[in-house]
Design brief:
This protein is α/β, with parallel strands linked by helices and 369 residues long. The protein has one domain: D-Amino Acid Oxidase, subunit A, domain 2 (D-Amino Acid Oxidase, Chain A, domain 2). It is built from six helices and 15 strands. Bound molecules: flavin-adenine dinucleotide. Belongs to the DAMOX/DASOX family.
Length: 369
């Protein structure tokens, strides 16, 4: 049987992972078409800005938790066996303050900081910290082995894996999702389009999903080594400001975060927020800057800044949209709306999208007979 012609719209972690899975067994000819590709930094392109680490946040028993559960073994295998992917293991410490329970960031952390989370048997070395181990103002904490992904290495690695499977990459900007069916590299109309456009699905013709909203994340990338991956459920500065630190693999620098500002579209870093982020990170992890020659703890002047950044997490009310729809005579499989978990759920969500593609194309082949 002739291979299926598929266009994947989107060059972020979602589009690339989906294209990679679709191209593995030779039954599909895949074109990836996108406005932004790895190497670009833009406010309409979330993936390069992510930390990115694996800190599960799905509700127990939900599809979301299942996608995160199914993603861990792949990321762990890459960290262990494939240094070219730019992923390494790191010990994570998740600190919880009881007073954050109802805040925006506390809600985001509610599963992550649970004393009995569903993921305790998924990640290695999970344990609750004893009272003696807790930092000041921290009510409870857990630790486990996580991974940190250097997105500047990992996204190009995904591209290279796709290229090896014959995937063709094209720059394109679509006004309407159905237009994507006409850019397949064979020159023929595609049998199916996969929509991995993230937050842009809010305005993309034929989709216009008003359930999407940005959760703005501001970061500072520094050269300092924290020695640990650490997070706190909230801050006293604002309801939607948080604190997290992780060092990327392969010399990618250390990410200091952050914020989770819903419905905030501002693309430029806020200098005051940047200062609050740096201060909070040093408070959480004084070793980030260490002491001066007189034995005095350094402040933010001890940070060696590489860059400031802002990304808009593609949050969606009701969660990720993984669904098949006929739009303007084109079969479209949607895979967007991954909020702050696009990497840690990437392999699970993409496998679910491939199932939808197979069942849509299966029905199509039957209809042709
Ligand atoms: C500060 C920050 C920290 C984060 N940390 C983590 C973390 O630690 N772990 C984790 O799992 N996740 C994290 N995330 C979330 C993660 O980055 C996102 O969930 C993920 O990047 C979404 O990827 P995506 O491919 O769906 O969307 P995007 O990366 O935004 O890609 C969308 C693609 O669609 C293309 N596109 C859009 N519209 C069109 C159009 N009309 N025509 C053609 N192409 C189009 C774009 O050009 C782009 O290629 C973080 C995010 C931020 C901002």
């Amino acid at each position: 049987m002739a291979p299926n012609k598929i266009v994947v719209v989107g060059g972020g972690v979602t589009g690339l992972t989906t294209a990679l899975l679709l191209s593995r067994d030779g039954s599909n000819q895949v074109t990836v078409a996108a406005k932004h590709m790895p190497g670009d930094y833009d406010i309409e392109y979330c993936s390069p800005w992510a930390g990115a680490n694996y800190l599960p946040v799905g509700e127990p028993g939900s599809d979301h938790a299942e996608w995160e559960k199914n993603t861990w073994p792949v990321l762990a295998d890459l960290a262990k066996n494939n240094p070219r992917a730019g992923i390494h293991f790191q010990r994570a410490v998740i600190n919880v303050r009881a007073k954050d329970a109802q805040s925006t960031t506390g809600q985001w952390f509610s599963q992550l900081g649970s004393s009995d989370p569903w993921y305790k048997n998924v990640v290695p070395d999970f344990r609750l910290l004893s009272k003696e181990e807790l930092g000041p103002n921290i009510d409870s904490a857990n630790s486990f082995t996580s991974v940190c992904i250097n997105t500047a290495v990992y996204l190009p690695w995904l591209v290279s894996q796709c290229l090896e499977n014959g995937v063709v990459f094209k720059r394109a900007v679509f006004k309407h999702i159905s237009d994507a069916a006409y850019v397949h590299h064979s020159g023929s109309k595609a049998d199916l389009v996969v929509n991995c456009t993230g937050l842009s699905s809010r305005k993309l013709g034929g989709v216009e999903d008003q359930k999407l909203l940005p959760a703005r994340g501001q970061i500072v990338v520094v050269r300092n080594d924290p020695g640990v991956m650490a997070s706190i459920s909230g801050s006293d500065d604002a309801d939607d400001e948080v604190c997290y630190i992780m060092m990327r693999a392969a010399g990618g620098g250390t990410i200091l975060g952050g914020s989770y500002q819903k419905n905030n579209w501002e693309s430029q870093p806020d200098p005051s927020l940047a200062i609050r982020i740096m201060k909070r990170c040093i408070e959480l992890c004084p070793d980030l800057v260490g002491k001066d020659e007189n034995g005095k703890q350094r402040g933010i002047e001890g940070l060696d800044i590489i860059r400031h950044g802002v990304g808009l997490r593609p949050l969606r009310e009701g969660g990720v949209r993984l669904e098949t729809e006929k739009i303007g005579g084109v079969t479209v499989v949607h895979n967007y709306g991954h909020g702050g978990f696009g990497y840690q759920a990437s392999w699970g969500c993409s496998a679910a999208a491939v199932k939808l593609v197979n069942s849509a194309l299966g029905e199509k082949s039957k209809a042709r007979l």
